[in-house]
Amino acid sequence: MAKLAVFASGSGTNFQAIAEAAAPTRHSIACLVTDKKDAYALRRAEKLGIPSHIISYKGKSREQAEEEILAVLAPHKIDYIALAGFMRLLTPRLIDAYPSRIINIHPALLPKYPGTHGIRESYESGDRQLGITIHYVDYGLDSGPVILQQSFTRNGTESIAEIETRIHNLEHIWYPKVMLDLMDAVRQN
Questions:
Q1: How many domains does the chain divide into?
Q2: How far is 119 from 105, CA to CA, in rounded Å?
Q3: Chain-centre distance of CA 29, in angstroms?
Q4: Which pLDDT band holds residue 188 (cuts at 50, 70, 90)?
Q5: Would you give the DSSP letter of residue 31?
Q6: Treating both helix axes as pointing N-terminal to C-terminal, what angle do 118-125 and 160-188 enclose, rounded to 10 degrees?
Q7: Over the stretch 68-113, which tens digit does the pLDDT of each residue have?
């Protein structure tokens, strides 16, 4: 059985999709970590019975906040971390504590449109192919090795809200699948 920690800063829809996909398996979502005390992901964690931890970055360096995160994760013996809308860049200290075991989802086809506005930038680009990238986290901004990309062809008449919905639908299908596949590999080792 593999253990996963999910980090989220907002609504937590990807967190919920992963948790629901993992529920019938032998794997577990050990905890949710958020940096926002009002993140809706906390309500989702409570409803799902998953422990949650709020680690505020306010008045701290990233390194100080991440030392708190590492202390929270240690007793859980985490196999993987899934970043699901966690709007913080991680330092080498946290990345090195979980080498090749921190996974991120990005709402654009990397290397195009890294950063916090992937959907908007993709939409405004006029690109016909839009989609998602699931990748390993490295020291750069959305620059780690790609695990999976999924895309769709837009017709050009969609609103940004329609594009956002299509991207989120891809995320909710593929992110849980990738995470379960990675956790299955841990279980086999």
A1: 1
A2: 12
A3: 13
A4: low
A5: E
A6: 130
A7: 999 999 999 999 999 999 999 999 999 999 999 999 999 999 999 9
Q: What is the C-alpha separation between 97 and 89, in angstroms, rounded?
A: 15
Determine the structural domain holding residue 129 and report its residue range: 3-188
Alpha-carbon distance 167 to 117, whole Å?
A: 13
What was the pLDDT predicted at 186? 81
For residue 61, give the nearest of 23, 91, 98 by alpha carbon: 91
pLDDT in tens, 127-175: 999 999 999 999 999 999 999 999 999 999 999 999 999 999 999 999 9
Tell me the residue ranges of DSSP E strands in 97-140: 102-106, 129-136
Amino acid at 97: A
Token digits of residue 103: 């996974």
Active site residues: 106
Element (H, E) at 177: helix 160-188
* Positive/negative CA dihedral, 29, 31, 35, 39: positive
Could you give phi then psi for residue 121, rounded to 5 degrees? -65, -40
| 187 pLDDT tier (thresholds 50, 70, 90) | low
**CATH code, 20:** 3.40.50.170
> Full-prediction pTM beyond 0.70?
yes
